Amino acid sequence: MPTPTAPAASVVADPPARRSILLDKAFLRLWLGSTSSGLATWALPFVLGLAVFDRTLTATSLGVLLAARTAGFLAAVPISGVLADRYSRRRVVLWSGLMAAAAAPLLAVGLGRSLPLMVAAAALAGAGQGACRPAFQALTAEIVDADNRQQANAAMTLAVRSTTLAGPALTALLAVVFDISALLLGVGALWLVAALVPGLGTASVHLTERRRSSFVAEFSEGIREARRHPWFVAGLAALTAVIAAGYSATGVALPMVSRDRYGTEMVLAGAMTGYTIGALVGALLIARWRPRFPGWVALAGLAVYGFAPLSLMLPVDPVVVIAAYVVAGIGIELFNVPWFTATQREVAPDKLARISSLDFLLSYGLAPVGLALIAPAINTFGTQAVLATCALICFLAPATAALTPSARHFSRQPEERTVERHAEAD
After folding, report:
1. How much of the chain, in percent, has pLDDT values that exceed 90?
2. Alpha carbons 288 and 390: distance in angstroms, whole number
């Protein structure tokens, strides 16, 4: 006699397993494009550094080229933010990627022949890099539903960190086979992938038609939108301070301490590798974890970057320095992923690219200022005093931002979303 089955109404189904975001074809194309742009962004200064190594470029010329690239980036970011809110985000990704791709053959032609041509090409490459960033951020929110955005942002940052970890070895191997010009063309090919792949098989997506104002008026509208979110203003101020102080300590003081205190470049290499590995761990952790107070967790993660300059102050074993950078890497992704996710959730969709451009413009745009000031400060006040100041800024800036009432959840409406989140988890 067959066993009777229970009535359908009495069956309680298990909650569906969370599907990997990379199984979504539209996001996979976006992920591949963003990964390719990240690899190309990282590879260009490395390849130009190889040109210094083989004496095709001087160190001074390299500095000029990197400065030109930064200038192009800073000029393009606010423009792209307006354009990506005004037109199709895919179209902005396409043209910014093509712009950066076009710079690669110009750099190859100018290499060893014309520094002015290379400077113009470097500025063009920086403009393409800067133009695609806000569009990628806004496009993620456009094609990924709200429940999957944290996983999507974690997947994006995992790709960036993985290329940073594997890129140097891969590029060094390629340099054995190919010359610098060929490697520069390879960077251009990566930008072609970034330009073309995200839009494959998809129709152009346009925002709701609206009356266009001047560029300044539209960017100012984005600033007003940012001011509507106190958690965003406080968090961006903290992020800018930590990047200016913490990254400056890493960029200038870490090589000096590695050389003068430990007498080997292995501490420098170990710390930077440890930071990247930590970031990978942090991204994997936050891809699944939904903390009760995401804003506070994110700001705490940002604050632990202070352990990096703190470890450089003290006469500790090299393992302690490397461990501090691993912790800093974990913390930075515990901040980045909830930060991007909250921005995509909270900001009005038609202003998201402008908000993202403001984020990149202030946080990463002011980083060169910190790098420019830290070496003279060390010469004037001493390494210990400057590192102590950098550590203090890294600890205090996020702690101050956490005092903003809406910072606890990175939301102006925290209670509703917290209840919904816990209901879904249960």
Report:
1. 37
2. 32
Q: How far apart, in whole angstroms, are the C-alpha atoms of residue 342 and residue 291?
A: 13
**Which candidate, 104, 122, 139, places its Cα nearest to that of 34?**
139
Tell the residue number behind the tokens 């992920």, with chain if given: 31
Name the DSSP letter for residue 403: T
| Separation CA 254–CA 260 (nearest Å) | 10
Model confidence at 335, in pLDDT bands (50, 70, 90)? Answer: very high
Two domains, one topology: 21-147+178-201 and 221-425: yes
Those residues with Cβ within 8 angstroms of residue 89's Cβ, 6 or more apart along the chain or in another chain: 135, 138, 139, 142, 205, 353
**Nearest to 300, CA basis, from 250, 338, 341:** 338
292-326 confidence digits (pLDDT tens): 899 999 999 999 999 999 999 888 999 999 999 99
Q: So what's the architecture of 21-147+178-201 in CATH?
A: Up-down Bundle (1.20)
Q: What is the pTM for the complete model shown?
A: 0.82
Q: Is residue 16 pLDDT above 60, yes or no?
A: no
Pick the CATH number of 221-425 from 3.30.360.10, 3.20.20.70, 1.20.1250.20, 3.30.1330.10: 1.20.1250.20
Average pLDDT of the chain, as a whole number: 84
Domain boundaries, the chain: 21-147+178-201, 221-425
Query: 3-state DSSP call for residue 211?
Result: coil
What pLDDT does 339 receive? 94
Q: Is 239 exposed, middle or buried (0-12, 13-18, 19+ CB in 10 A)?
A: buried
Contact 127, 190 (CB under 8 A): no
Token pair listed for 233: 């203003």
Q: How far apart are CA 402 and CA 33, in angstroms?
A: 34
pLDDT beyond 70 at 209:
no
User: Rounded to whole angstroms, how far apart are CA atoms 54 and 19?
Assistant: 48
Closest to 271 in 3D by CA, of 253, 289, 244, 285: 253
| Res 211: pLDDT | 53
Q: What is the pLDDT of residue 311?
A: 93
